[in-house]
Amino acid sequence: MGNILTCCVCPRASPELDQHQGSVCPCGSEIYKTAAGDMIAGVLAAAAVEPGEVTFEAGEGLHVHHICEREMPEDIPLESNSSDHPKASTIFLRKSQTDVQEKRKSNYTKHVSTERVTQQYSSCSTIFLDDSTASQPHLTMTLKSVTLAIYYHIKQRDADRSLGIFDERLHPLTREEVLEEYFKYDPEHKFIFRFVHTLFKAVRLTAEFAIVSLIYIERLVSYADIDICPTNWKRIVLGAILLASKVWSDLAVWNEDYCKLFENITVAEMNELERQFLKLINYNIGVTGSVYSRFYFDLRTLAHDNGLYSPVYLLDRERAWKLEAFSRMEQHKIFYSAAKNGSLSADDLIHLQRAKAILF
C-alpha cells in the first residue's frame, strides 16, 4: 500500500508535489470553472450532447504504478457486485447499453457505417497496436472513458437518491453563487472530463488512479444505495480521487493540497468527505488485479462503443523490442524477491539488465 490512511493536515506542501517544482498548479476556482463555466452558459439546453469520435495524441500515461498487481487477502469475502467480484458486470457498461443499442439501430436504419474511415487493420505482414495496456493505460483515453462511465451513471440513474455530504448545494466548491438551474440538467460528458482532467493534471495523477476511482464510485453506489446526479457528482468524484490517490500512491497528495484547488472547501471539510466516503464503502479500499482488469477492459469496450479511439502505431522493430522488454520485465519480477533470499543466479541478473537496457 505504501501509506497509512489518514486525514493529512500539514502547513507545508506534500512530498508528491515537491517532486515537481516549477509546475504551475491551478489556483482558486479554476478546476470548478473549467467544468461549470460553459455549462452555466448553456444550462437551458436540456438535452446533453452525446460524446463523439475523439482521437488522442501519443506519449501520455507512461507511468507504471502496478495497481493491477496488488491483491486483497484471499480470506476477505467478496460481494456480488462489479467493484468486488470480477465476474459481475460493471454498472456503467450496463447503463450504457441502452444508448449503444439505440445508436446502432439508428445507424442501421439510416445505413450509416459505425466503422471509422481511417480504421487500420493488421495483416500477416503488418501489425497495428496502441500504447494502452492494463498496467500502463493511456492517460487521456482512460480519463475520457472513466468520465464517460460517470456520464452514463448520471444519465441512466434510477432516481435522485443522495446524501448531504455529497450535495453541492449544501457544500459548494466555490464562493460564487451557483444558479439553481445548474442542478436541473445532467452535465455533458465534456464538462465531466474537464473537471477530472484538470484535477488529475493539478495533482499529477496517472491513469491507473482514474480506474481505481471509478471502482470506488461504483462501490459507493452499490453499498450506500445512492445515485450519481447533478447535485452530487463533483463531490463524489472528488472523494473517490482523493481516496484512490491516498491508498495507492507511495507519495500521496495531502488534503491541504486538494483544498488549494477550490475556493470554498477547508481541510476539515475535505477530511470529513474522506471519512464519510470510507464509512459508506465499509472501509473496503482493496482492489484486486482481476477487478481492476475487468474495469479496464470494460472501459475499452465502452470507449469503442462510443467512438473513442486511442492512436494506433505500426509495430516496427523498435516497438517490438520494447514489447519484448516489457514481457521480460514481467517474467523477471519474481527475481527481485529471489535476490533478497540470495537465490538469484548470474544468468538471471544478465537477462534482467538486458531487458532494462532495451526498455530504457
TrEMBL record:
InterPro entries: Cyclin-like_sf (IPR036915), Cyclin_PHO80-like (IPR013922), Cyclin_Y (IPR012399)
Membrane-spanning parts: none
Domain of life: Eukaryota
Coiled coil regions in record: none
Pfam families, per database record: Cyclin
Entry GO MF terms: protein kinase binding
Keywords of this entry: Cyclin
UniProt-listed SUPFAM superfamilies: Cyclin-like
Keyword Cell wall biogenesis/degradation: no
Family the entry assigns: Belongs to the cyclin family. Cyclin Y subfamily.
PANTHER family associated with the record: CYCLIN Y, ISOFORM A
Protein name in the entry: Cyclin-Y-like protein 2
Phylogenetic placement of the source organism: Eukaryota, Metazoa, Chordata, Craniata, Vertebrata
